[in-house]
């Protein structure tokens, strides 16, 4: 089976009457890293909570590797690890005890070697006998990841795993996530750091006001939506675009010192060559050039603002 | 059946008690000793024997029941309320565990703790007054049944409570009065006839009476009725818990 998670027509109306998810359908492919993006309150945590059994769905079904998460919850949940958004830990437990507890809870026989391996990978081994209340926020976050990994899940949900985590630790976590993917774990993460999705994800989904508004391969998304720009620093400033160059949609920048050419990633090669050729013919010389690509963040902001 | 999970929850809860072992043992031992100093020695010396049992000995089963009830409720309600309060309950809810297994873990641990406590109180009481247990099997049966039943009741309160006040409310407003009025320190036959009838509405009467019968062979109500009433209350608690897990009441949104 290609899809390890299959969400069909899922909706959620909270007791307050608020409709947090509206007819969401989504398939997660085995072995991928899927990044779920969306502004605050979009419904990311709600979606994850339903899949993991923390919130009851109002309508719709979720299958985890073929097992319905409500009716066959035992089979479904034993495959799923969850690192929730909120940092919640048993303050008085030790790191080792709490991670060992998680493994038992998920029905796995004790395996101290596996627990040790995880704690070492997450640089927690030295802290194994520390009580959780004595740990910093970033370490607690790693403990929560260790708990989720303790029972060897096939599917891992990371709800904003790097919120409040410093740059170095964030890189470490990316590395851990990559290794997990290598070992065959499917990963679904949410994040507000777009560069994180850009860096890690195979596919990206955008959720907005309870609806999935886009699901796309990251590379494809960048290609489709990722406008590129060529900026030329001119030797002599221009006051207007010369007549012969009107067809290329050029613009002037920096008071006439820069010439900006925007193009689709599709038209890449030919477009640039043509423009540069035309410039040469028109006798326009430049001292430097850069190309830039619209970041995922810009894409995401424009997608969301189109809708609101 | 997820035996590993039941074991994990049970041991987690027992370990939690282990950290506060001083409070959970010293406190009841001291309060029991105080009861004996006051009721047994000071007041008891002026009291007549009840049903041929000296007052000091007579109150032992009631005292044990009092602690058993309050400790079962507070152990179990706190055990489930606390992870709800801190949010760590997410893990239990997302784990491949059946409601039955969750209940066995939490309620089993709470009941174990209060049974150990009851035995400690019994031993402490033995230092003050002579104690003989005529029906040890029934004594243990009542102990276990009561501990399990009221741990289930505490579990329900812990799920229902959405603040620390509510957690205290039920034990304080309902359980303690019922226990004191339930014949812990007297035989309900000592009450005026009307109040004897009223007392029969109090479930604690049946527990104390049955438990006392297992010690002294005398009872306010027939021991069979005591057992049945306890089982009825147990069944009601189980029914409520089944409903809680079916609907996700106060556990899931
Ligand atoms: N228990 C609840 N009762 C009522 N409404 C809720 C409840 N939980 C969440 N909501 C609402 O549902 C919406 C989606 O919340 P959710 O936590 O899923 O958002 P999110 O995408 O995870 O946001 P964030 O990025 O801030 O974590 C929000 O408007 C929130 O207020
Ligand atoms: Mg969220």
Q: How would you describe the overall organization of this protein?
A:
The complex is a heterodimer of chains A (308) and B (253). Chain A has helices at residues 44-52, 73-77, 95-105, 112-121, 137-149, 167-182, 194-200, 218-225, 268-281, 296-307, and strands at 3-13, 19-29, 33-37, 59-64, 67-68, 80-83, 155-159, 186-190, 203-208, 211-217, 228-234, 251-253, 258-263, 286-293. Chain A has 308 residues and is an alpha/beta fold. In chain A, the strands form three sheets. Chain A has a six-stranded mixed beta sheet, with helices on both faces. In chain A, a hairpin with a 2-residue loop joins strand 4 and strand 5. In chain A, helix 3 (95-105) packs parallel to helix 5. Chain A is elongated and about 75 Å long. The model of chain A has no long low-confidence stretch (mean pLDDT 89). By secondary structure, chain B is an all-alpha fold. Chain B has helices at 3-19, 21-43, 55-86, 89-94, 99-128, 136-160, 164-180, 193-199, 203-216, 223-247. In chain B, helix 1 (3-19) packs parallel to helix 5 (99-128) and helix 5 (99-128) packs across helix 6 (136-160). The longest helix of chain B has 32 residues, at 55-86. The mean pLDDT of chain B is 90. Classes of the chains: A alpha/beta (308), B mainly alpha (253). The interface between A and B is medium-sized, with 34 and 26 residues. Magnesium ion is lined by residues 44-45, 85, 159 of chain A.
């Amino acid at each position: 089976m290609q899809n390890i998670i299959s969400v069909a027509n899922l909706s959620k109306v909270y007791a307050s009457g608020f409709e947090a998810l509206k007819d969401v359908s989504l398939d997660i492919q085995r072995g991928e890293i899927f990044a779920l993006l969306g502004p605050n309150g979009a419904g990311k945590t709600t979606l994850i909570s339903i899949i993991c059994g923390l919130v009851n769905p109002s309508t719709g079904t979720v299958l985890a590797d073929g097992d319905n998460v409500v009716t066959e919850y035992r089979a479904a949940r034993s495959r799923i690890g969850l690192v929730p958004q909120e940092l919640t830990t048993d303050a008085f437990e030790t790191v080792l005890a709490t991670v060992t507890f998680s493994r038992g809870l998920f029905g796995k026989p004790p395996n101290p070697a596996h627990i040790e391996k995880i704690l070492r990978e997450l640089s927690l081994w030295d802290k194994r006998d520390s009580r959780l209340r004595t740990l910093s926020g970033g370490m607690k976050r790693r403990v929560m990841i260790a708990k989720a990994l303790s029972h060897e899940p096939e599917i891992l949900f990371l709800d904003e795993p790097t919120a409040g985590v410093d740059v170095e630790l964030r890189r470490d976590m990316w590395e851990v996530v990559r290794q997990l993917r290598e070992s065959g774990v499917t990963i679904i993460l949410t994040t507000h750091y777009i560069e994180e999705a850009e860096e890690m994800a195979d596919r990206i989904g955008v959720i907005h006001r309870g609806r999935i508004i886009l699901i796309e391969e990251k590379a494809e998304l960048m290609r489709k939506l990722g406008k590129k720009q060529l900026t030329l620093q001119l030797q002599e400033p221009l006051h207007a675009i010369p007549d012969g160059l009107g067809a290329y949609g050029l613009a002037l920048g920096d008071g006439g010192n820069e010439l900006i050419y925007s193009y689709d990633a599709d038209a890449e090669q030919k477009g640039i060559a043509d423009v540069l050729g035309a410039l040469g013919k028109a006798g326009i010389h430049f001292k430097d050039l850069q190309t830039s690509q619209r970041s995922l963040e810009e894409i995401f902001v424009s997608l969301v603002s189109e809708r609101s | 059946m997820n035996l590993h999970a039941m074991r994990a929850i049970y041991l987690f809860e027992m370990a939690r008690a282990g950290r506060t072992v001083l409070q959970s043992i010293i406190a009841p031992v001291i309060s029991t000793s105080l009861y004996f100093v006051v009721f047994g020695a000071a007041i008891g010396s002026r009291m007549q024997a009840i049903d041929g049992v000296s007052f000091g000995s007579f109150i032992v089963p009631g005292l044990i029941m009092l602690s058993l009830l309050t400790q079962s409720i507070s152990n179990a309600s706190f055990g489930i309320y606390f992870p709800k309060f801190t949010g760590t309950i997410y893990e239990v809810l997302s784990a491949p565990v059946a409601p039955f297994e969750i209940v066995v873990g939490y309620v089993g641990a709470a009941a174990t703790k209060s049974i150990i406590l009851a035995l400690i109180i019994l031993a402490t009481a033995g230092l003050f007054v002579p104690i003989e247990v005529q029906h040890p099997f029934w004594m243990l049966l009542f102990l276990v049944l009561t501990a399990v039943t009221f741990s289930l009741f505490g579990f329900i309160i812990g799920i229902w409570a959405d603040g620390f006040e509510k957690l205290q409310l039920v034990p304080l407003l309902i359980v303690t009065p019922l226990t004191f009025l339930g014949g812990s320190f007297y035989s309900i036959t000592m009450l005026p006839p009307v109040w004897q009838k009223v007392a029969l509405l109090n479930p604690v009467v049946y527990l104390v009476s049955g438990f006392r019968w297992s010690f002294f062979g005398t009872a306010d109500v027939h021991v069979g009725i005591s057992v049945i009433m306890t089982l009825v209350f147990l069944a009601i608690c189980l029914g409520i818990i089944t409903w809680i897990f079916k609907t996700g009441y106060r556990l899931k949104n």
